[in-house]
Amino acid sequence: MKFLKTAATSVAALAIAATGAFADGHATTKLRIQTHYAPETVSGKLAAQYVEDIQAMSNGEIAVEMFYSSSVVKSVETFDAAATGILDCDMTGSGYAVGKNSAFQFVADIMGGYATPYQQLSWLYFGGGLEAAKPLYNQFGMELIGWWVYGQESFASSKPIRTVEDFKDWKFRSPPGMETKIFEKLGASPIVMDFTEIFTALETGIIDGADASGLANNVGLGLYDIVKHANFPGFHSMPSDHLACNKAVFDAMPAHHQKIMKVGMEALALRTALTFEKANAEAAAQLREQGVTLHEWSSEELAKFRAAAQATWPEFADTPEAKALVESHMQYLGQLGLVAN
Q1: Which of 87, 276, 331, 335 could share a disulfide with 150, CB 3.0–4.6 Å?
Q2: Has residue 12 got a pLDDT over 80?
Q3: Residue 112: helix, strand or coil by DSSP?
């Protein structure tokens, strides 16, 4: 109890430090935010645009110190770093918090569910997603501010990935969570490693391929300078990157700063989805010219993957919060006609 009281007192002190006032009396908010994206990637540039937007909309009252490429702590440690006050906000994704509660998987990436970022975003804002996720984040001292979803991811691989059969004995970088279970069932050998380690692992042959990001981001990371196979359009994963802030810090912010942060995320969400529609198409054309082979999956092979993914959902719905989120998704996926009710 003494430790919890001390920790709560420390976070409260940090929250006060994150907010203050100018000489003329109006409020100021200073935030330290970390993302796993490199600044030269498409998503890194979009994150920078978000920072520019909220600073401009607040007339400079919100000031952000942005850390790229997980330069303060490892990607998987970002959530805890924000919750404990090392940072103020986590701009990675809740997949890194699955070890805390499997429910985070169904905020991060349901896999084999939604077909487009617009469908997934509509669950968050109009399908009860925010309301379902809020208590989960609050339980760990965090506040979910919003999502930015870039669409379906594409693999980078040293060998063709054309069918489910091609996953057999394929060693690839995987994020933690449900994805490892799905691909183990399909015969692959997923290796969980930090986002920042992917390039070197491919270069040295530790892995045969990687689930890193969308096609354009993969180009920005230089993955196709090493390996010459990708799948496009993507199908297996559509992670929802989040902005989540220390709840004490966020609660201490003026109401108009909170509103700017949230509305700014809605703008970032739309900008991200639209940007990647164009960027991924341009990246695909560029890669074809460079001799990278892009594999488009047949509807039959896609059905096999979706069946394996959906069969794995119940295995991760092992907490009350996870079950509630799966039920919310299934109800909304049914409304959209993506699963049978």
Answers
A1: 276
A2: no
A3: coil
pLDDT of residue 263: 98
Number of domains in the chain: 2
Cα separation values, 28 from 49, 255, 256, Å: 20, 12, 11
Give the model's pLDDT for residue 86.
98
Residue 162, Cβ density class (10 Å: 0-12 exposed, 13-18 middle, ≥19 buried): middle
For residue 248, tell me if it sits in a domain: yes
User: Cα 62 to the chain's mean position, in Å?
Assistant: 24
Q: Are residues 23 and 99 in the same domain?
A: yes
Residues spanned by the domain of 244: 2-151+239-278
The domain spanning residue 177 has which CATH number? Answer: 3.40.190.170
45, containing H or E segment: helix 42-57
Evaluate whether residue 178 is within a structural domain: yes
Instruction: Please report, as a single letter, which amino acid is at residue 90.
Output: D
* 165-201 confidence digits (pLDDT tens): 999 999 999 987 789 999 999 999 999 988 889 999 9
Same domain membership, residue 263 and residue 251: yes
Residue 5's pLDDT band, with cuts at 50, 70 and 90, is very low
Among the listed residues 101, 64, 51, 62, the one whose alpha carbon sits nearest the alpha carbon of residue 79: 101
Write the CB contacts of 200 (distance below 8 Å, at least 6 apart in sequence): 206
Residue 69, token pair as written in the block: 């490429």
Query: In the structure encoding, which two tokens stand for residue 334, read together?
Result: 């049914």
All residues at 6 or more sequence positions from 205 whose CB lies less than 8 Å from its CB, including other chains: none
The Cα–Cα gap between 70 and 91 comes to 10
Asked if 39 and 48 touch (Cβ cutoff 8 Å), the reply is: yes
pLDDT at 328 over 70: yes
Residue 287 domain-assigned (yes or no): no
